[in-house]
Amino acid sequence: MSFKRYLRLLAKQISVSDKLDEIVKEYSDHMEDHMEALMEKGMSAEEAEKEAVYQLGDPVYAGRKLNKVYRKGVEWPLLTYFLIVSAAFVILRYFLPFRILPQEWADYIGLGTLLLGLLISALEKYEDLPLFYAWARDWNGGGITNSAFILAVSVYFFARNIKSALIWILLILVLLTLERYSIACIRDKKVRELLWEVGIAETDINSYKGYGFVNGKRVRLEAKEGIIKRGNIFIVVELHGFRPLVMSL
C-alpha cells in the first residue's frame, strides 16, 4: 500500500473536519522522517515507503481511534461567548428597562434578531468560519460581530425578568447547538464522500468556481492553486466550508 492510499483511508474515518488537516500533516511529517531514517539504513525509497506504511498499522483502525479522540458535539467557545454577552445584556436590561418601547414591540424585535442570529450562525457553520472573523477574505483584522452576539441581543429584548431571561438563554443554547451540530454532521458526511477522491474537470476550475465530476456526480469546485483546465484530472484535497478544494494531478 502506498502512503497516499494510506492517508486516503485514514482521512475517510475522520469526521472532525477542523482537525483533519492537522492530523494529515502530522502523519505526513512522521512518514517523511521515518522514510529518511530507513533510507539512511540502506533501503531504497520504495522499500522505505512500504516498510513505514506497514509499521503505521491499519489506517482504518487508526482513523477511527483518532476520530473518537477529536470528535466534539458542543462548540464551547461559541456557547461561552454567547453566555457572557447574554449576561451582560440582561444586566443592562435590569438597569435600563424599556421606558418608551412597549414589551410587545420588544418581542417582535427579539424574534427578528433571534431568526437573524440563527441564519447567520448557519452561514458561519456552512462556511466553516471561526468565532471571530473578518467580513472580507483579504482583510487582516478581526470580525466586528458574529451570530452569538446577535442572539444575545435577542435575549435583551425578550427578557421581562431574570427567570424569563434564563429560559430564553437556555432555549437559544439548545437551538444553536442543534443547528450547528446538524450542519457539522452534513459537512462531515460530505468530507468522507469527497476527500482524496479523483475526478475530471467539466469546466475550467479557478479559485472562485468551476465544475467537475467526482464519483459520477457533478460537483461545484474551487482550485486550491492556479487553474485546472477543462478535461484535466484532479484530486480533492480539502473542503472550505462545503466547497471542495482540488489540485491538478
Description of the molecule:
The protein has 249 residues and is α+β, with helices and mostly antiparallel strands. It folds into three domains: 1-71, no CATH class; 76-191, no CATH class; 195-249, Nucleic acid-binding proteins (OB fold (Dihydrolipoamide Acetyltransferase, E2P)), CATH 2.40.50.140. It is built from eight helices and six strands, in the order H-H-H-H-H-H-H-H-E-E-E-E-E-E. The chain has helices spanning 3-12, 17-40, 45-56, 59-70, 76-95, 103-126, 147-158, 162-194, and strands at 198-201, 211-214, 217-220, 222-223, 233-240, 243-248. The chain has a six-stranded mixed beta sheet with strand order 3-2-1-5-6-4, with no helix packed on it. A hairpin with a 2-residue loop joins strand 5 (233-240) and strand 6. Helix 1 (3-12) runs antiparallel to helix 2 (17-40). The longest helix has 33 residues, at 162-194. The chain crosses the membrane at residues 78-96, 108-126, 138-159, 165-183.
Question: Key terms for this structure?
Answer:
249 residues, 3 domains, elongated
Blueprint of the fold:
Layout: H1 3-12, H2 17-40, H3 45-56, H4 59-70, H5 76-95, H6 103-126, H7 147-158, H8 162-194, E1 198-201, E2 211-214, E3 217-220, E4 222-223, E5 233-240, E6 243-248
Rg, nearest Å: 24 Å
Counted beta strands: 6
Supply the number of structural domains: 3
Class of secondary structure makeup:
alpha+beta
SSE arrangement, N to C: HHHHHHHHEEEEEE
Contiguous uncertain segments of 5+ residues: none
Mean pLDDT: 84
What fraction of residues sit in β-strands? 5-15%
